[in-house]
Each structure stands twice: as C-alpha cells, then as structure tokens.
UniProtKB/TrEMBL annotation:
NCBIfam families: PRK00522.1. The lineage of its organism: Bacteria, Bacillati, Bacillota, Bacilli, Lactobacillales. Coiled coil: none annotated. Keywords: Antioxidant, Disulfide bond, Oxidoreductase, Peroxidase, Redox-active center. This is Thiol peroxidase. InterPro entries: AhpC/TSA, Thioredoxin-like_sf, Thioredoxin_domain, TPX, Tpx_Peroxidase_subfamily.
Length: 170
C-alpha cells in the first residue's frame, strides 16, 4: 500500500489489515517501559490513533483531539502509537498535559510490521485510526492518504459512538 508524504508517494511494508480481521500480535512499550502486547488490549473497545512523529504539529493536534474526546467515551480505551522513544513521548505528554489516553512507543517497529503500517524509508508509521472491539476484531480503519493531513475525527468518533451505544445496550 502507498500513502503520500507532502505529495511524494511512499510505500508501506505491506497492506494493513482490513475491517473484520483480528488485530495481529505485536508489542509496544508504555511510559513505565513495560511491554504492552496485543492481548493487553483485549477486553474493552479500543481506539488506536497512529501518528508518524508525536513531536510534529499534525501529530500533536491528532493526539490532543483524541485526548479531549476520551472523557466522552468512558467505555472505550484510547491509545496513541508512534515510533518515538518512551522518553520523547513522556516529555511530549508532560508538555501537552495529555492524561486521558495512553501513549505507547513502537520504537522497535513491532506494531508497524505487524499492522503493515511502517514506512521503511522514514522509520515512521502511516497516520491512521483504528477501532478494535473487546475480542480484538478490527471494526474500523482509517488510513490517511496524505501524512500531513489530519484524520477525519468526526467519522472515527461517530463510529465509536455507535459501538459504545451497542455495548451500553447489552
């Protein structure tokens, strides 16, 4: 699959998983340098916001937007994933006051390869938004075609709203 970065076409390491498939196995690292595996994300509805570099303006806007929205969805877990180091992410979170979501590091590119979102030329991930149900099935995906563009927040949040209301109805 290809996306563009400032209009220049770049290839991902493969084709990211489709809606209806299981979240692949990967590992990420949290702010305490603890391993977070795919299995740790099961059991609750999860929105995964993927950003290329937490220290850039569009990635900052994306992460702050989802951080602001997390309170409106108490039945969902919000995470942001980037290839930035734990130290870079911790500094960014402290400066931005991000506390409503988990920021996880894919510095070793396990998530990027498993989800086939890694851009090997830059060592970053393709900007995307994923929603995964409690069983680990991908129920929403949005891969942003141009890396410097923001995702369609409203589309992702509307889907999350539908999914959380279904969970609440059960």
């Amino acid at each position: 699959m290809q996306v563009t970065v400032e209009g220049k076409s770049v290839s991902l390491v493969g084709n990211p998983p489709e809606i209806g498939t299981q979240l692949p196995k990967f590992k990420l690292w949290d702010k305490d340098d603890q391993k977070v595996k795919t299995a740790n994300l099961l059991g609750t509805l999860t929105l995964i916001s993927v950003v290329p570099d937490i220290n850039t303006s569009v990635c900052t806007m994306q992460t702050r937007k989802f951080n602001q929205q997390a309170d409106h969805f108490p039945g969902a877990h919000f995470i942001t994933v980037s290839t930035n180091t734990i130290a870079e992410q911790a500094g960014w979170c402290a400066a931005q006051g991000v506390q409503n979501l988990d920021v996880l590091s894919d510095a070793d590119e396990s998530f990027g390869y498993a989800m086939e979102l890694l851009i090997p030329d830059t060592g970053t991930l393709a900007r995307s938004v994923w929603i995964v149900d409690a069983n680990g099935q991908i129920v929403y995906r949005q891969i942003v075609p141009e890396e410097v563009d923001e995702p369609n927040y409203l589309d992702a949040l509307n889907e999350l709203e539908k999914l959380t209301s279904r969970v609440d109805d059960n």
